[in-house]
Amino acid sequence: MSAEEREAARSMMDKGELGQTPEQQRAGFDELFASRPLGDDVTLVERTLGGVPALDVRVAGADQDGVILYLHGGGYIIGSARTGANLAAPLSRRTGVPAVSLEYRLAPEHPFPAGIHDALAAYRELAGQNVVIAGDSAGGGLALAVLLAARAEGLPQPAGAVLFSPWTDVALTGPSIDSRGDYDPLFSRAHMAESAELYLGGADPHNELASPVFADLKGLAPLLVQVGSAEVLLDDSLRLVARAAEQEVDVSLDVVAGAPHVYQYFAGLMPEADEALDHAATFIKNRLRDKSVGGVA
Questions:
Q1: CB–CB of 258/7 below 8 Å?
Q2: pLDDT digits (tens, 9 = 90+) for 62-101
Q3: Helices (H) and strands (E) in the chain, counts
Q4: In terms of Cα–Cα distance, which of 137, 117, 116 is closest to 265?
Q5: Is the dihedral of CA 272, 31, 76, 199 positive or negative?
Q6: Catalytic positions, please?
């Protein structure tokens, strides 16, 4: 896709209205994403995982060893296991690995760290299997928090983690939160500040589980981070990757020029989105293979 085509795609998006209630935000998000077709080869089956509601994302033929635990985005305020299935399904299809999308609790009804407790409980139940955790936006930050919490608890790390446009700094200290505000077609500092306030419920935004970009990352599983340059959260990825590399974490970064937040949602429309999912699938398969044969994970 050319720079002009990416600009045209961004021009079709607009920033959401500030000041909406969580209920209004959820209704609007669900209208756009909760009924997107997943493909005739996909069946969703309700289950619980660590006592937390979830959806098995069953793609026909996806019966390889391992499991993808998917954590949906939505600023910790909106989204669901069903919206997470929109990205869990193509990852499962491309890897042949089963996926499960988690219905973790949302703020402000259940502020930080309720969602982390849910995601850790789900991971704890899966930890005997070969697991990759994946997530987008807030779900990417949540995936990192699970890795940190699992390390603190003495649980094994997953085989790897895939992070699409992760929100890693709810303190909003990255330069791009302001410098990219006019370029980002979806968010501004004000949008992110609204979500952060509701999520934190008065907690310290510099807590490493809320903002993993400030954490000691030593010993975490290998990471694949994908982000677009047209994002106020660009530096949430750039700083995370630099910190991970400095602390000897195996980390890879994909940046697509001009791409918006969680551009993987444009698979089938934007070649770079399909390429990103293909790369993520290769990462997942390689990490699961290396872990299963006792390689470095």
A1: yes
A2: 999 999 999 999 999 999 999 999 999 999 999 999 999 9
A3: 9, 8
A4: 137
A5: positive
A6: 137, 231, 261
